[in-house]
Amino acid sequence: MYDTVIIGAGPAGITAGIYAACYKMNAVVIGKLPGGEMLSATRIINYPGYTPVAGADLTHNMVKQLRDLGQSITEANVMDVQKIDGGFSVKTDDQKIYETKTIIAATGTERRKLNIPGERELSGKGVFYCATCDAHYYDGKTVCVIGGSNAAVQAAVQLSDRASRVYIIYRGEALRADPIWVEEVKKHPKIEVLYKTNITAIKGGDWVSGVSLDTAYKESSELALEGVFVEIGGIPGTSFLIPLGVAVDDKGFIEINTQMETNVTGIYAAGDCTTTGNMLQQISVCVGEGAKAAGFTYKSLKSIRPPALWGKLWTQM
Fold this sequence. Notes:
The chain is of the alpha/beta class.
């Protein structure tokens, strides 16, 4: 039986695996795509120690470090988790079963896609899903942000520090962001909101050149720009944990306490799939949570902290 099974091979899962190896825990990292959403970042400039680095290169370095420490990654999807005597049974899509004392869920999120013509073809070529990661491309240029929530509005404000013009394209009649952000957008000279509008296609060759709109803007259904930032939320990979009673918020993100514990004893969580990690969706946050999850899992297995303390910590949150 494993000490822990780490579900997810993004930055949180890989880091948990690195720390598990350092603690000499009998562990395995399971994830279909090592690196996860980190792979889609073409140029990361805010990860400490790298100036800059491509997501693929950072993934390579993290995975190499993990394997150099003797830890393996099993490339598979987890399909089911069951409670068994002394722990859990984890089943993957290749029909393998892993029995473990604990679980660290680091499944991350999958960014919601528009699923329109041009999106996939121009991903990384003007179509991005992280303003923090990719705003540097747009000094003095024109971009749009798709969405109307806090993430979209904050991305627009952030992009306005560099871009000459930022359009927020939103299908609703009013932005759903916090009032302070809505007010910021309304008074910002570089930002314009196109309400009750969807983009139906993304245009471009080697790079984005514009979008098609389903509602005319200035008597045209075409809008020329050089970047499209999709901010319509993410889907947490947590569905297989819900039957076990793991508490999630109304969007499916896992609720954790300060020790990275869920409300189910023996199940920890880290990274973008948690309510805390989802606040920023940054690699550095995922790395920190992954390290904490492995550390507190180790302490729990060694009975360094009485299990009864969990309930006290949870109620204090």
